[in-house]
Amino acid sequence: MVELVVATGHRGAAALEPENTLRGIRRAIEIGVDQVEVDVHLTKDGELVVMHDDTVDRTTNGHGRVRDLGFDAGKGEVVPTLQEVISLVKGKVNLQVELKGLGVEEKAVETVEEAGMVDKVVFTSFRHPALKAVKELNPDIETGVLFYCLPIEPCRLALDAEAEAIHPNIHFVSAEMVRRAHALGLEVRAWNSDEEEEMKRLIKTGIDALGSNRPDLLVKVI
Ligand code: G3P
Ligand code: CA
User: Fold this and answer.
1) Ligand 1 atom closest to residue 100's alpha carbon, by position in its atom list
2) CA 210 to chain centre
3) Which of 18, 54, 206, 222 shows a CA-CA span of 20 to 30 A to 44?
4) Rounded distance, CA 68 to CA 79, Å?
5) What Cα–Cα distance (Å) separates residue 192 from each residue in 19, 37, 48, 210, 214?
6) 110: which residues sit within 8 A by CB, 6+ positions away?
7) First and final C-alpha spacing in the chain
8) 210 pairs with which residues across the strands?
9) How far, in Å, from the CA of 39 to the mean position of ligand 2?
10) How confident is the model at residue 4 (pLDDT cuts 50, 70, 90)?
């Protein structure tokens, strides 16, 4: 039986709509993704907001660090909270939450627990101690390790962090990497491809999930 690859809308549908906004997430859901990926930071008053950078300059009409919710994040969209994103996706698609900012683990776990979304969320991070902290807070929440460069043993990173998956950049993905991960009981969720032929090549390696800023193309290819 051929397993279907999980289609992930990266930062919602980042090439089609303002990234990490409810509008982008809504678009990804309409397109038919299985899950959406978002990034989270804490504001100074302890709110978890969905934003990629630790400053608001690139993606909003404001300046400075992530502190306020009043900025225009594109097409009139405001910066959403994680809670708002969860309310939007619940019952429709799964959610991949990248722990970007420092100290977000506890609030993120609490938000997901209160929403009854523990089995519909995966937490990812380049900061693997944050993923271990998530496991300590709630071992039932799935996690996946991100890495910038290709480590000698990517699966080791996941096992050390008690994660269920490796999340490699597409440039590191090979059939051999997937085979090794699967042999260890780990999933492989690659990011990101926005080009159809490349998506097809990646899917042939046996990956379990693929992210894209063009979920419209990804859903068509899958
Ligand atoms: O899913 C992984 C990917 O989102 C990591 O890179 O920079 O887009 O957060 P970045
Ligand atoms: Ca991300």
Assistant:
1) 9
2) 10
3) 18
4) 9
5) 14, 11, 24, 7, 9
6) none
7) 15
8) 7, 190
9) 5
10) confident
Q: What is the pLDDT of residue 62?
A: 85
Task: Give me the percent of the chain exceeding a pLDDT of 70.
Answer: 97
Examine the pLDDT at 187 and tell me if it is beyond 90: yes
Q: Which two tokens stand for residue 103?
A: 């100290």
Q: Give the C-alpha separation, 193 to 7, whole Å.
A: 11
Mean pLDDT of 168-172: 97
What is the DSSP secondary structure assignment for residue 7, as one 8-state letter? E
- The residues assigned a catalytic role are 10, 52
DSSP letters, 122-184, are EEEES-HHHHHHHHHH-TTSEEEEE-SS--S-HHHHHHHTT-SEEE-BGGG--HHHHHHHHHT
**Closest-approaching ligand to the CA atom of 53:** 1
Q: How many residues does the chain have?
A: 222
pTM to 2 decimal places: 0.96
